[in-house]
């Protein structure tokens, strides 16, 4: 990228201007924590979405889910995950905002789309317990073998989850 920028004397200046404009013009959506140019992002303003709420760790986690086209609900970015070793506790996450959104009773299901490492699992378990008393279904993303992945490349945890999450094959 550096060589490409140096080929044309105008490119570095243009890139710097675009980055400065993004820094000044893009903010966090007050509802979900995604990127917005107004108070709310385009996803939160979309009235055609389903009454599902997908909880992710970071705003950037929303992008691949949106690109997949497999989910047409709303999102909530926590701003991180529980990590005692890094001194990140529940008070450091956007949990109050999540609970406020759920108070409105707009969502029928909360989908926890968090990392499958130790911190992600701890955060998911904490959220599941926090949300248990609410009148909303709480689910996790399915886990298992990636498409196109062979058994020889899968770790033990992935294989165990793929086995426990197996489903009936065929139409019968």
Could you list some keywords that capture this structure?
172 residues, two-stranded antiparallel sheet, 4-stranded parallel β-sheet, single chain, alpha/beta, Dna Topoisomerase Vi A Subunit, Chain: A, domain 2
What features would you describe in this structure?
The protein is an alpha/beta fold and 172 residues long. The chain has a domain at 47-142: Dna Topoisomerase Vi A Subunit, Chain: A, domain 2 (3-Layer(aba) Sandwich). The protein contains six helices and six strands. It has helices at residues 2-7, 11-25, 62-68, 95-103, 118-131, 156-164; strands at residues 27-28, 35-36, 52-56, 74-77, 109-112, 137-140. The strands form two sheets. It has a four-stranded parallel β-sheet with strand order 4-3-5-6, with helices on one face. Strand 5 (109-112), helix 5 (118-131) and strand 6 form a beta-alpha-beta unit. The chain is globular. The mean pLDDT is 88.
Helix and strand layout, with pairings?
Elements: H1 2-7, H2 11-25, E1 27-28, E2 35-36, E3 52-56, H3 62-68, E4 74-77, H4 95-103, E5 109-112, H5 118-131, E6 137-140, H6 156-164
Parallel strand pairs: 3-4, 3-5, 5-6
Antiparallel strand pairs: 1-2
CATH topology of the domain at 47-142: Dna Topoisomerase Vi A Subunit, Chain: A, domain 2
Number of strands: 6
Low-confidence stretches: none
Q: How would the global form be characterised?
A: globular
Helix content: 25-40%
